[in-house]
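Input/output pair, single chain:
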Amino acid sequence: MRTYNWAIMGLGQIAHKFAESLTLLPNARLHAVASRTGAKAEEFAAQYGVPHAVGSYEELLTVPDVDVVYIATPHTEHYANTLLCLRAGLPVLCEKPFAVNTVQAQEMRRVAEEKGVFLMEAFWTRFFPAIHKALEVVASGTIGEVKHLAADFGFVAPYNPEGRLFNPVLAGGSLLDIGVYPLFISKLFLGEPQAIRAVATLADTGVDVNCAMALAYASGATASLFSTIAAQTDNQCILYGTQGQLHLTGRFHAASGIMLKLPNQEPQVIPCEKQGFGYHYEAEHVQQCLTQGLTQSPLLPLQFTQELMQQLDAIRQQIGLRYPMESIGTA
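Output:
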């Protein structure tokens, strides 16, 4: 079994979780890390026993034997960082949100397809065993036809105008940071909406603190989604069907199982595997794709990611959120 050499670009909190998660895969090795500063890269490398540490993203391209790059930089850098790697022929797993807007996402996809290089959004939720189980149960008709999906994600973030969550220069706000999760899960189970309506509460900096979304689908289903950085929510997802309900247990974006509520029956809990943080599930899938010579994931294709980005753009237009780095007409 081939061992894949991973590199991480951007060494913040999520990079640490990804590095720890890779240790759960017997055929994965953290081979290189890149930061804006050599000292930070060296410190990270020492912590995880990484043989190569570089102090610029460009220098990562010179490290030999890198098989795939995980991009964990801030939202606003995903576009440039991904293109840098793709143009060098390096496969990319890029953190969510994939880009700041659809124009960027389309260009990232175009370059990946032109170069024939693997590219996938790092939407780890998609690869949890609980999500696979939930999709299987819904497809089997156990809860009947899904008529409504409700999902929320929220936590309390101290107000810091310069911090990444509140700073428009860093594409801040609840929507791009955590609102993408309810939006993602609704798309996964219900497909593309026919209509989207959104309202938001904005911070003094102009980014969204609360964002409430209502979606309608051709199937007759609807969805109510919510994200906030001003309150702790239950972080849950419930699918309401004509013959019962399905709840993702635990925090839905990193679910530990499902619970079925069927008429005249006791709730049935089906636990699913959840090891560590769970980032290794997406990493394992990427390696499977690379082994098969694929340039896209069959479970999370670039078309899905692009459509999700279009939904984010539509919502931002409705709530009046535009970022300073966006030129006229790009979102």
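The longest strand covers residues 146-154. Residues 302-319 form the longest helix (18 residues).
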